[in-house]
Amino acid sequence: MEPNTKLYYDTNEVAAMVGCEASALRFWEKKFPQLAPKRDSRNRRRYTERDIEVIRKIMHQKEKQGRTIKGAREQLRRKEESQLMIYRLTRVRQFLAEFREALSIPEKPL
After folding, report:
1. Which in 22, 48, 51, 103 has the greatest CB count within 10 A?
2. What SUPFAM superfamilies does the record point to (predicted)?
């Protein structure tokens, strides 16, 4: 199948895609709350594109940045918090812009 056509990938497929051992994926699942693959009816792990992206981030933190498991986990947590804060601030800004626009509308004469 072509990339991005599947909704779920099994452990061995993901391990081959990212270039690590399947046992590392299972280990990281215990250490990183961001990595939580779904389970099918046979209790097999099913990874989504989001899960694979998290795995790539973990690998980057460990291999390229030289972080420990704890350091990588903390870095991912901070990244998620900052993205959430940006999202919230964007929504507040949008609300305030709409509010300002509503206040500046002149009343229509009766």
Report:
1. 51
2. Putative DNA-binding domain
DSSP track, 37-49: -EE-TT--EEB-H
Q: How far apart are CA 16 and CA 18, in angstroms?
A: 6
d(CA 18, CA 24): 11
Q: Has residue 1 been placed in a domain?
A: no
How far is the C-alpha of 35 from the C-alpha of 48, rounded, in Å?
10
Q: What is the CATH number of the domain that holds 91?
A: 1.10.1660.10
**CA distance linking residue 93 with residue 70, whole number of Å:** 35
**Domain range for residue 56?**
11-103
Is residue 4 situated within a structural domain?
no
| pLDDT classification of 1: cutoffs 50, 70, 90 | very low
